[in-house]
Backbone:
């Protein structure tokens, strides 16, 4: 079993839809949770960063962490065609620099 | 501009011909790491470095070497490339200092390597 599981998609939605992207994990020691966005032929770029449980909002993006369920989510409101990319969840333990990544979910937002 | 620079972006080589992929960062980051990205397998760590002259194996180190002689540079060396090393490679860096806020890694743009 992988430490971090993520549905590969693709997830296709119309412009303006609310998108929900999710990851589950098995290591309860993970404390830092991140979402990266990766456009085709580009490196991943950090989108959201949260520590431990709770919600964090940044514009149209909301990250949620439920440590009791070992489940993290990224919500995108009013999705745009420019949001079409692969979204990678990542997480790490306190005191460790290594990030463990999900395999990524490909999102397609059609005009 | 703060960035991680990888070269080359694309490389086609033959089995057994030694090659080096360079990585340089201008953010004074202590931590640097190499990942390979393959369909269905995601990003897997090859090697990492906590600081100058400190390197260690990641999850898939076989067939690779690294060095960290300067803080800004972290080259990836394939001494004898094989076709199973055909992949998309990313270099990443971050702070590794107590008291600094770690906002995760900054990634380079990637190197697509094909070994024939």
Residues:
């Amino acid at each position: 079993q992988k430490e971090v599981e993520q549905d590969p998609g693709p997830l296709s939605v119309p412009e303006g839809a609310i998108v929900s992207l999710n990851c589950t994990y098995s290591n309860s020691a993970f404390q830092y949770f991140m979402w990266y966005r990766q456009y085709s032929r580009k490196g991943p770029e950090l989108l959201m960063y949260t520590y431990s449980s709770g919600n964090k909002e940044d514009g149209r993006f909301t990250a949620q962490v439920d440590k009791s369920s070992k489940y993290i989510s990224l919500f995108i409101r009013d999705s745009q065609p420019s949001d079409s990319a692969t979204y990678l969840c990542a997480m790490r333990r306190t005191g460790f620099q290594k990030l463990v990544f999900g395999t990524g979910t490909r999102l397609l937002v059609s005009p | 501009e703060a960035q991680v620079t990888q070269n080359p972006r694309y490389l086609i080589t033959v089995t057994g011909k030694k090659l080096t992929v360079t990585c340089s960062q201008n953010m004074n980051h202590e931590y640097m790491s190499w990942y390979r990205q393959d369909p269905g397998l995601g990003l897997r760590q090859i090697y990492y470095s906590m600081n100058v002259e400190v390197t260690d194996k990641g999850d898939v180190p076989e067939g690779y070497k690294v060095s960290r002689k300067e803080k800004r540079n972290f080259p990836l060396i394939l001494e004898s490339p094989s076709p199973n090393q055909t992949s998309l490679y990313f270099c990443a860096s971050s702070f590794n200092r107590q008291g600094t806020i770690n906002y995760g890694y900054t990634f380079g743009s990637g190197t697509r390597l094909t070994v024939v």
